[in-house]
Write a structure and sequence with these properties.
Blueprint lengths: L1 H17 L4 E17 L2 E19 L2 E7 L4 H17 L25 H4 L3 H18 L4 E19 L4 E19 L2 E4 L2 E5 L7 H13 L10 E7 L1 H10 L7 H5 L20 E4 L20 E6 L2 E2 L6 H7 L7 E2 L8 E2 L4 E3 L6 H8 L2 E6 L10 E5 L2 E6 L2 E5 L3 E6 H6 L1 E4 L4 E3 L2 E3 L2 E10 L1
Parallel strand pairs: 8-15, 14-22
Antiparallel strand pairs: 1-2, 1-4, 2-3, 4-5, 5-6, 5-7, 8-23, 9-10, 9-14, 10-11, 12-13, 15-17, 16-19, 17-18, 19-23, 20-23, 21-22
Length: about 450
C-alpha cells in the first residue's frame, strides 16, 4: 500500500508542477478503525470505519492553494492537484510564507509504532477484551446498583507525504485504547469515574486492571462534600496535569500562538518561567510513544526538543512556517487532524520528567490540601488565568484523604502555577496528550460551595 501511495503522490506533484506550481506538497493517508461500545453492562454496538484521502498544497510565488479528495484513486489525486494550483493562483499572497520544508537524508528510526497483533485482531477478540474489563468492574462493585459503560477502539493506518523539495516519507502505525466507566447509585447518590489505557501495543492494554481501577475510582467519589476555601496546596494527578500542562502549557509554547501574541508566555523564550525542578521535553522519537513518528505532518524529521530545563524556557514548538518566520530550524511539530486540513502545530510526546515518590507520598508530605484527579478546564491562553473545576478530587488533612470534593474550583494564573511547582512525583503514566507524574503546586485559591 505504501509503495502504491508513494507512486501516486509523486505523480500528483509532477501534475501540479505542470500546471504552474512553484512548490507542491501531497499528503495521503488511509486508516481502518474497529470499535465496540458497551452501555449498561452489555455490548451496544460494533463498527468498522475505513477512511482514505489526500490533501494537496500548491505554492505559486507566495500564494498558497489547498484542495483535498476523499479517495486515493490516481485520477482523483491528479484532479485535486490541478484544483490546488488554480486556488493558489486565485488567492492573496502571504508575506510571511518562505518555503515548504526540504529534506534529503534518512529519517530517524522509531521503534514500536506498529504491532501486527493489533492488525490481526478480529471482532471476537476485541469483544472478549472489553467484556473482561466490564466484568472486572462489576466484580469489584458486586452487590451495588451499577451500570458500566465502556469502549475499545483499535486503529491501523498508513500515511505518505511527498513534496517537490525532496520530502519523501511513508509510515504504517497502529494504536489501541480502552476505557471503562462504572456508574453507581448508593443511598440516593449517583456517581461515576473512569480509567483508560492507550498504546501502540496490544500487550500494554490490561482489561482487568482498567475495570478494577475504574471501579475503585468510582467508589472514591462517594460522599463528596464542600470545604472551607482559601489558599491551599494543590496536588495534580496525571490526568489533571494532562489538561493543565498538556493542554494549557503545550498550547502556550506553540510558536504560532506566541508569534500572534496569543500566548501568556509570549516574549519569555530564554527566561526563567518555572520552578527549577520542573523539566519538560517534547519527544517525537520516543520508542512506542503515542505521539511518536519518524517525520511530522510536513515530512520534517521528528526530534527530541527541550522545552523547560532548570526553570528556563528553552524552545517553542515549530512547524516549517513559524520556523521560517523566526529564521530557525523547525522542531518537527507540524500536525494535521487529517488529509482534509493544512498543517498546524502540536506537541508529540509532551513529557514531564519524574521526581520522587508516589501520589500517596506526595499527599503525606504536603499534609493538608486538595487533590485534583481530573479537570476539564484549561487556562485562558492569552492571559494565563485558570479557573478549573475539580471534576474528581479529594480533600486531605494530616496526610490522609478525608473525603471527595463537591463544587470546588482552583483559581491561579499559569505563570504563578509554573513558579509554584513544589514537588514532582515518580508515578509517571500516559495521560492522553502528556506523559507525566503527579505534581504539587505550593498554593492556589480554592473555592468550594
Amino acid at each position: 500500500m505504501k509503495e502504491e501511495l508513494l507512486g501516486i503522490a509523486e505523480r500528483a506533484v509532477k501534475k501540479a508542477e505542470g500546471f504552474g506550481a512553484d512548490q507542491v506538497e501531497v499528503y495521503t493517508s488511509s486508516s481502518r478503525t474497529f470499535s465496540i461500545e458497551v452501555e449498561n453492562n452489555s455490548i451496544k454496538s460494533a463498527s468498522e470505519q475505513r477512511d482514505a484521502g489526500c490533501g494537496i498544497r500548491s505554492v505559486v510565488g507566495k500564494k498558497i492553494g489547498f484542495a483535498y479528495v476523499t479517495t486515493v484513486q490516481e485520477d482523483d489525486l491528479l484532479e485535486a492537484a490541478e484544483m490546488s494550483v488554480r486556488l493558489a493562483k486565485a488567492s492573496l499572497p502571504d508575506p510571511d510564507f518562505v518555503t515548504l520544508p526540504s529534506f534529503d537524508g534518512a529519517y530517524p528510526e522509531v521503534k514500536g509504532l506498529y504491532d501486527q497483533e493489533i492488525v490481526d485482531l478480529d471482532s471476537e477478540e476485541v469483544a472478549d477484551i472489553i467484556i473482561r474489563a466490564v466484568d472486572a468492574a462489576r466484580f469489584r462493585l458486586e452487590g451495588m446498583n451499577v451500570a458500566v459503560e465502556a469502549k475499545v477502539s483499535s486503529s491501523t493506518g498508513t500515511k505518505v507525504i511527498v513534496n517537490s523539495l525532496g520530502i519523501n516519507g511513508s509510515a504504517d502505525t497502529t494504536s489501541i485504547w480502552m476505557y471503562t466507566e462504572p456508574i453507581i447509585k448508593e443511598d440516593g447518590e449517583q456517581t461515576s469515574s473512569y480509567e483508560v489505557q492507550l498504546s501502540r501495543n496490544l500487550k500494554e492494554i490490561h482489561p482487568e486492571w482498567i475495570g478494577k481501577a475504574s471501579a475503585e475510582n468510582t467508589l472514591s467519589n462517594l460522599g463528596a462534600k464542600i470545604i472551607e476555601g482559601g489558599e491551599l496546596p494543590v496536588v495534580l494527578a496525571p490526568f489533571a496535569v494532562d489538561t493543565i500542562l498538556g493542554g494549557g502549557f503545550a498550547g502556550a509554547v506553540n510558536a504560532e500562538e506566541v508569534q500572534y501574541g496569543r500566548s501568556y508566555i509570549a516574549d519569555a523564550l530564554g527566561e526563567e518561567v518555572s520552578a527549577q525542578h520542573l523539566r519538560i521535553v517534547d519527544d517525537g522519537i520516543m520508542e512506542s510513544g503515542i505521539g511518536s513518528r519518524s517525520f511530522d505532518a510536513e515530512g520534517h524529521p521528528s526530534q527530541r526538543t527541550e522545552i523547560l530545563d532548570n526553570g528556563v524556557l528553552k524552545s517553542l514548538l515549530h512547524n516549517s512556517y513559524t520556523a521560517n518566520k523566526d529564521n530557525i530550524e523547525s522542531t518537527g511539530n507540524a500536525s494535521r487532524a487529517g488529509y482534509s486540513g493544512v498543517p498546524s502545530i502540536s506537541s508529540s510526546n509532551f513529557i514531564v520528567a519524574p521526581g520522587k515518590g508516589t501520589l500517596d507520598d506526595l499527599i503525606s508530605e504536603v499534609g493538608k490540601g486538595v487533590l485534583c484527579r481530573f479537570t476539564g478546564d484549561r487556562p485562558n491562553m492569552t492571559t494565563g488565568d485558570l479557573s478549573a473545576m475539580i471534576m474528581e478530587g479529594s480533600y486531605f488533612e494530616n496526610g490522609e484523604i478525608k473525603h471527595p470534593l463537591r463544587n470546588t474550583l482552583i483559581g491561579i494564573n499559569m505563570r504563578d502555577l509554573l513558579k509554584r511547582v513544589e514537588m514532582v512525583g515518580a508515578d509517571t503514566r500516559v495521560a492522553f496528550s502528556i506523559i507525566s507524574p503527579s505534581v504539587v503546586i505550593r498554593s492556589a485559591q480554592v473555592t468550594s460551595g
